[in-house]
């Protein structure tokens, strides 16, 4: 891959990884509600899960969607349902120091890895990256795209968790925390526009 193409790929990876989307909204909400230490598995799951997704999309899944267009509709339905459920969970998250069974838990590493498969922004990013930077779906090119995204994605998305953590003091008021959680939930639902 030429240096100019590599620079373009890196810029695409940065812009698409650091801009708002389901992963970033959930990482910010998790950082604000559970703190950085408890959000690290979620952030690692996003970074590693998305990198793995690019490889799998590049080596075969993209062709499967070309072959069976109905898979696009199934993916959209599952994605919408899951994102709406996650938005409800975020909107109703209890305060970080609240005792009792109503308190939520941060997303686990495995849940974050699996979430990439129903995340419309992740699909859009992976399909676009492969189409633009590994159009022949050569394994070496696909792997290079995945590595570049892996290097750039984890720190970019983790910034959102850090932003959430920085808001924890301000969110110590139950009213502000509730407003924040409802805002994050609304933004998550708003990210469904990527499906249309």
TrEMBL record:
<dbReference type="InterPro" id="IPR001123">
    <property type="entry name" value="LeuE-type"/>
</dbReference>
<dbReference type="GO" id="GO:0015171">
    <property type="term" value="F:amino acid transmembrane transporter activity"/>
</dbReference>
<feature type="transmembrane region" description="Helical">
    <location>
        <begin position="108"/>
        <end position="134"/>
    </location>
</feature>
<dbReference type="GO" id="GO:0005886">
    <property type="term" value="C:plasma membrane"/>
</dbReference>
<feature type="transmembrane region" description="Helical">
    <location>
        <begin position="179"/>
        <end position="195"/>
    </location>
</feature>
<keyword id="KW-0472">Membrane</keyword>
<feature type="transmembrane region" description="Helical">
    <location>
        <begin position="44"/>
        <end position="65"/>
    </location>
</feature>
<keyword id="KW-1133">Transmembrane helix</keyword>
<feature type="transmembrane region" description="Helical">
    <location>
        <begin position="141"/>
        <end position="167"/>
    </location>
</feature>
<keyword id="KW-0812">Transmembrane</keyword>
<dbReference type="GO" id="GO:0033228">
    <property type="term" value="P:cysteine export across plasma membrane"/>
</dbReference>
<feature type="transmembrane region" description="Helical">
    <location>
        <begin position="70"/>
        <end position="88"/>
    </location>
</feature>
<dbReference type="Pfam" id="PF01810">
    <property type="entry name" value="LysE"/>
</dbReference>
<keyword id="KW-1003">Cell membrane</keyword>
<protein>
    <submittedName>
        <fullName>Threonine/homoserine/homoserine lactone efflux protein</fullName>
    </submittedName>
</protein>
